[in-house]
Every structure is written in structure tokens, then in C-alpha cells.
Design brief:
This protein is of the alpha/beta class. It has one domain: Vaccinia Virus protein VP39 (Rossmann fold, 3-Layer(aba) Sandwich), CATH 3.40.50. An eight-stranded mixed β-sheet has the order 3-2-1-4-5-8-6-7. Strand 2, helix 3 and strand 3 form a beta-alpha-beta unit. Helix 6 crosses helix 8. The mean pLDDT is about 95.
Amino acid sequence: MSVYTTEIASDKIPSDNVIHQRLLSAYYQAKPYIKGKLLELGCGEGRGVELLAPLADSYVGIDKIESVIDRLEKKFPNYEFMSGVFPPFPFEDNTFDTIITFQVIEHVKDDDGFIKEIHRVLKPGGRALITTPNIKMTLSRNPWHEREYTGDELTALCKRFFDNVEMKGIAGNENVLKYHERNRISVQRLMRFDIFDLQHKLPAGLLRIPYDILNRVNRNRLKETDDELVKSITFEDFSLADQSEQNLDLFCLLTK
């Protein structure tokens, strides 16, 4: 059974390519920071395992979807995977040298506890890397997200537990921004039918199915409109940039 919604972008669905490459780019940007014992919180289907795990002394991936974890254990028998909902984390204090968690914190109800637990299981001198959507570039409410952040908001949250917080972002080049602008216009056309602003008034649970259907329709439409643009974008079209409201994602570096 597939676990994919439009919230979990697939490298196998052509219209998901831009989102998949955007998510993949974070793993490439993380490469220089990987060392020692590596923990990935919310590893999903293992988008970055092959890229980052060989750079570490050991790798542990944890995710809430048991079927995904079962597949990863078979695909990567030399690495450790476990299913579970967090926080808290099932690890001792000061266990990991590096923690990565990409596009996860926006789904976590207790984001305060999430950052506190990251600090707890990091070794002194260890580093954690967090990515999450930049709310300043969000095109509509995402009912799968508990919340989204500005760079300053995420920085303030992390500084409650970490003294050393560096905020950067994932930026896109001209082709990425061209796609983003077409996406913005397409979303606005769909949202004009929401005359009562139900996307912000209804409970998230009621919005997830229609959101997913409309999101898929929108991605397919963007692909049909300019198939070459959608196919041509790769992780190399994204880069690590200084903090800016124009970054697509926040990229936060925490040092214990």
C-alpha cells in the first residue's frame, strides 16, 4: 500500500519532482555537517539514507509509519531503523554527534518538547540540523501542519534550549522561482472559490482530503502547462542561503 499523499512527495510521481528535489537538496546541504553517530528524526522513506549514512560512524532512522520502517530495514540492513511517535525519544542522554530532522517539526504538536529532546540526546559539541517550510513563502494553509514558522520564530524556540543557533535557508534559482510563481498563481485561482475562508476556519482533519485532492490537481496542472520546467529542476537548483524571507525553507543549525 502506498503511503504517499501530496504531503509526502514521491520521486516516482513526475508532478512531484520539484518538491522532491527541494526536499532532497537539504540532504546535500547537510553533508559537510555529518559526523559520528547520526540520528534522523522522521526519516520517511529514506530519501537521504544512501547520501548521508555512509558519512557517519552509525545511522539510526526513526519514523511513525511502520510499513515504511519495515521496507527500510530490508533495503538497508547495515543501518538501524525504528518506528515510533515522538517526543520523547527512546535514547539515552548525550548519545548522538549529529541529528537531522527535515520537514518534520511542523508536524509535531509539542515542538517545545521536540527541541528539548534534541538537546538532551545530542552529545556536548554535537550539532542538529532542522528544515521546515518558511511561512513567508507558504501559498495556503496546510492542514497536515500543526504550525509553520518565520526564521525569527524558529530561532526564538531553539534558543530556549540551545545557546548556539544559526538560521539559514534553502533558496531556489531562477527556474525554481519561476515554478513557485506559477504555483502561486494557480493556487490563488483555486482559492478564489473559498469565499468564506474555510481553509482557516475548519478543523484540519476536515480539510486534509480536499487539500490533498486539490494539491494533486494543481501539481498535475503545473506539469501539463510546462512539463520541461517541472522535469528539468534538480537538487542543484536549490542552495543554502543566509536568512531571508524569500527562502523556501528554513535551515537551522543548532550546536550543543
